[in-house]
Every structure is written in structure tokens, then in C-alpha cells.
Specification:
Helices cover 47% and strands 18% of the residues. By secondary structure, it is of the alpha/beta class.
Length: 211
């Protein structure tokens, strides 16, 4: 697929494509070979119109009688989302959440892998968690350069998030996923995605209260 077209795909569409692939992989593992837009929509709790729009945007159309070919669609989404050479990720903060992310992600994506963890706890330094070696954060630049890491995940306590993000940027990280409760700022050439679990939980609580 043309790289100029890929660059113009909205961020929300990229997010949904990732979700579609996850659902499609589950369907494939269950022996399903084809799927209709309304089935994908039901799994993702969105409309079939939205699914069709997203897939038309990436140039994919299904068969009216059989629907979308699951293997072909998974492969196409992969060419859009994944890097041809693969992407390497580091987790900053190997506490309970950092360990959980490393364990959960192990082996789930062929072209996206967590290859290093950083912490300051001497009991964790030099160990391996879910196959991920843990280093002292003082070695961040060294390991990031050596392992060609471009993506970092922040799972440190909120009061350490800003400093951690600065270290990541200074060491060459170009994409950051921030799970800490504190927002961070990064240069324009660094992509930042922040996930606030408290806000998400409060949103759920609001709708429960109202209904």
C-alpha cells in the first residue's frame, strides 16, 4: 500500500484497525475463514457502516456472499500498522503493571516486541521478567541504542513520569505510551499516547450512575 496514503489515515482509524485485527485473529483461531462487516461491528460495539468506511479507506472490499476474507484482511492490516523490519519496545517501570504488560504482550505480535525493561530497584536489575531483561535506568541510552528501541511504555509512579519521559526522549525514543497518572510533554517529533485509567473508570461510573 502507498506510504503517502497510509500517512493520511486518521489516528482513530489506525486504532480501530488494530482492534479489528485482534478480533479477526480470534475468529481465525476458531476456524472461521470469512466475516461480514456487521459481525466485526458487533464484536467491536460499533456500526457496520463504520467498519465498511474504515476498510474502504484502506482499499479493501469483501465478497457480497461470503464477506471479508479473514486471512487477507489480517495481512493487509499488518502491512499498514506493522513495520517491515519490526519495532522494538522498552518498558520503563517494572513494578506490578510493568510486569503485567510484559507478560501479557509476550509472543502476541511478531513485528512488535518488548526487548528491555528499566527500573531503579536493585532487586529487579539483572533479572528477567516474562523473557524481558531488566536494566537500571542509568543504562537507558546505552541499551536503547544497542537494541535499536524506538518505542517506550511508561508505567512508573506519577511523580516520576515527567523525568522518565525526558530520559526516553533524550535517549532517542520516538513513540511513547504513557500509563502513568501524570501527563507528560514531548517534542513534536515524538508521538505520545496517554491512557488515564482513572478517567476511563470515572466515565464508566458516570454512565452507571445515570442508568
Amino acid at each position: 500500500m502507498d506510504q503517502d496514503i497510509i500517512k493520511k489515515i486518521p489516528h482513530k482509524t489506525i486504532e480501530r484497525l488494530s482492534q479489528y485485527r485482534r478480533a479477526l485473529l480470534i475468529c481465525l483461531s476458531q476456524g472461521k475463514t470469512h466475516i461480514f462487516s456487521h459481525e466485526v461491528a458487533e464484536i467491536q460495539h460499533i456500526t457496520a457502516v463504520q467498519v465498511r468506511r474504515d476498510l474502504m479507506l484502506i482499499g479493501y472490499s469483501g465478497n457480497l456472499r461470503r464477506g471479508y476474507n479473514i486471512k487477507d484482511l489480517i495481512a493487509l492490516i499488518g502491512t499498514i500498522i506493522d513495520s517491515q523490519d519490526g519495532q522494538r519496545v522498552a518498558v520503563f517501570g517494572m513494578g506490578n503493571f510493568g510486569r503485567a504488560i510484559s507478560a501479557y504482550f509476550e509472543g502476541r505480535r511478531e513485528r512488535l516486541s518488548i526487548v528491555a525493561g528499566f527500573d531503579v530497584n536493585p532487586q529487579k536489575i539483572g533479572t528477567s521478567i516474562a523473557g524481558v531483561p531488566v536494566y537500571h535506568i542509568d543504562r537507558a541510552c546505552e541499551i536503547i541504542s544497542k537494541e535499536k528501541i524506538k518505542i517506550g511504555i511508561i508505567t512508573v509512579p506519577g511523580n516520576q513520569a515527567v523525568e522518565t519521559a525526558k530520559i526516553m526522549v533524550d535517549c532517542g525514543i520516538k513513540g511513547i505510551l504513557n500509563y502513568s497518572p501524570s501527563p507528560v510533554k514531548v517534542p513534536e517529533d515524538v508521538f505520545l499516547e496517554e491512557y488515564d485509567m482513572i478517567t476511563s473508570l470515572e466515565k464508566v461510573a458516570f454512565y452507571v450512575k445515570e442508568h
